[in-house]
Give the backbone structure.
Amino acid sequence: MICKRMIVIFGCMLLLTSTAFALTGREIMEKNDALPEAKTAVSQVLMLIHQGSKVVEKEFEIKSKKYENDEDKTLITFTRPTQIKLLTHSHKDRDDDQWLRLSSGKIKRIASSDKGKSFVNSHFYYEDLTSRDIDKFDYTYIGDESLNGVDCYKVEGIKKKDRVYSKSVLYVRKSDFFVIRVDLHKKDEFHKYIEYFDIRPVSGILTAHQLVMSLSDGKGKTELKVNAVEYDKDINDSAFNKEAIR
């Protein structure tokens, strides 16, 4: 018969072993950051803005390119119903730069104080259209959760310098470390969330073909449907100059 003392010791050994192999929030996000990704991407996207019983449709193209200094450049060009363009230069060690070309042709720089404003009357903010650099966040593992039958790590992210969200909670699939949902908080209150659906590989890169940004109160959402995507296509750097959006 195993004595109680041995049971306690064995239980402590199991606890120590499981703790030793537990991942921190930072480690989980490093595994997500290490997933294969392309140097360039070109996507054709349908945007559906749901406001009550009304649905507004817009279409746009996204071009993006990564650079050796871990900075990204992205150009969003609307093809209908407007001629709006948004150019984003994401930086590793400072705030991202964004410029908006209005239908009138006027170029407007998006100030840091405006990054929490709606983009083209959707439920996405300008802040949501910047890249996520893990070094700009402090991450904490806060538990596990099953989301739509998928086992996930829950990781809290607090941006070291952010004027829009007080924190985010990321749901990371245990099977492959792909993020399938992010809860966004403003002033420590649950504000909205984005979900990623129809996730499948394209040229060996896991790609969500449907994204839905929803308000926490259920009073509106914006859906993005990726109709086509092509990776590692040659894109000239000039496509991301400010002159390119004129």
Remarks:
- The domain at 25-245 is CATH 2.50.20.10 (outer membrane lipoprotein receptor (LolB), chain A).
- Confidence is low (pLDDT under 50) at residues 4-20.
